[in-house]
Amino acid sequence: MAADRLRGTTRLAGVIGWPVDHSRSPQMHNAAFAALDMDWAYVALPVRPARLEAALQGLPALGFAGVNVTIPHKEAVAGLCDSISEEARRAGSVNTVLVSDAGSLRGELTDGRGVVDELGDIPRDRAVVLGAGGAGRAVIVALTDAGHRVEVCARDGAAAAALAERLGAGVAPWPLAEPPPLLVNATPVGQRDDELPVDHKLLAGVAVVCDLAYRGDGGATPLIDAARRAGARAVDGIDVLVGQGIHAFRLFTGVEPPADVMRVAARG
Q1: Residue 74 annotated to the active site
Q2: Of residues 24, 73, 74, 215, which has the active-site annotation?
Q3: Taking the model in full, what pTM does it have?
């Protein structure tokens, strides 16, 4: 939204994270608001972990309809909302906070649903999720609910085992040795450097690779590059950003978003 369109009646939404300067959510949501001629604006909100609770408590007074939540706040926010959805409770993670008219905060989870939507109609088979953090938890819950046999693979084996037991998943040893039909990277590895979360040779046996990480410049992550070279279908972090953003837009506004506009803007 152009600055000259902002006024006292403008409804606000945003994304909270630390750091958050790389986020493409503002351009994606603002393009959707403009396409629908909505008096809304979406802003990036850099919030240090120590100020997270204060930031959330200030949202009602500032007139926010809600915020998305990104690294490193997803798990902490789950404990700071007045209520959370069943999906968010199971995952112990929140990526969308809705502010009611009375000022209460409700935590929702759209990450996993965004992944499932972007994967589309694929065989329900073995799926390995790399990472045991907030994003990984969301994906594990969503893939399990969709009928996949999910295994958790993380550097911290104890954390992976505990999470797998709680969510009814299996465990794959780190580093991953056996290629699954579906591999989902829910770690930040590769977002800013050339490191891969798995051996590139393993990707030759994977049918679909989904990387939740994405680069601020819109370029492919090393994992997506390697997956494409190996002949796998690649679903990148911007695809997932749009998928979860569509759900978040509906929750914020109650309006069906222009998905094509969001997709173009997220890659612009």
Answers
A1: yes
A2: 74
A3: 0.93
